[in-house]
């Protein structure tokens, strides 16, 4: 399942990179996004670390929901949040020369709303109409059991409504089916430092510091 490539940012240029982290809950995205931001900052690069759902009004609305919205409504909310996030945060930061690291983006909609029955191709097409593609997406792969264990130990056994095992299995399946040359699949089973090293190597292969 492929996202339309309607943007030339991914061609080799001096533009700051738009880097996305994807993966199921508990895969270690937030940990790795933070580690990469610290690493690039330590190399003197201006970096903006951000996430979806965003901290804007629609993202806050999503976070405040007591239970999940109906699938179509949920897809609409994440898409609207993404438009707002791009306009308000991501594009201005890139224009000011910052590397942007975003924890979740279009492929989260494909995987999570796709897992609720919305056709993945439709989600990718609707998002592809407005959302610039990332220069690189690190997709952290880990088995669902390990992810569930990590979530449980990190949060004293509390799970959100997004983290039901059968749902995460569907989400995982969609992530594994995605086809995009800008996706780098990372084995997330090692220690945080080992995973970070794989990500650094992936960036080096792209000619980045
Ligand atoms: P995500 O953002 O994908 O949900 P987090 O980065 O928040 O994942 O990590 C989920 C939990 O697993 C946290 O408690 C975190 O400290 C822990 N964790 C993250 N990466 C690893 C790793 N490589 N090995 C073991 N535990 C990890
Ligand atoms: P988040 O707080 O990033 O969860 P985590 O840190 O555990 O990865 O995101 C909350 C949930 O939002 C997450 O379970 C996935 C879901 N989500 C979607 O369903 N669609 C989307 O487009 C996005 C961006 C997130």
Short description:
The protein is α/β, with parallel strands linked by helices and 209 residues long. The protein has 8 helices and 5 strands. The protein has a 5-stranded parallel sheet, with helices on both faces.
Structural class given helices, strands, pairing? alpha/beta
Order of SSEs: EHEHHEHHEHHEH
Mean pLDDT: 92
Q: Which range best describes the helical content: under 10%, 10-25%, 25-40%, 40-55%, 55-70% or over 70%?
A: 40-55%
Q: What form results from the Cα inertia axes?
A: globular
Which molecules other than protein and nucleic acid are bound?
adenosine-5'-diphosphate, thymidine-5'-diphosphate
Which blocks of ≥5 consecutive residues have pLDDT under 50? 6-12
CATH-derived topology? Rossmann fold
Strands of the largest sheet, in order across it? 2-3-1-4-5
Label the CATH architecture.
3-Layer(aba) Sandwich
Q: Supply the CATH class.
A: Alpha Beta
Query: Could you give a short account of the major beta sheet?
Result: 5 strands, parallel
How many beta-strand elements?
5
CA gyration radius, whole angstroms: 16 Å
User: For this structure, what is the CATH homologous superfamily?
Assistant: P-loop containing nucleotide triphosphate hydrolases
Number of helices: 8
Beta-sheet strand percentage? 5-15%
What is the terminal separation in angstroms? 30 Å
* Count of the separate structural domains: 1
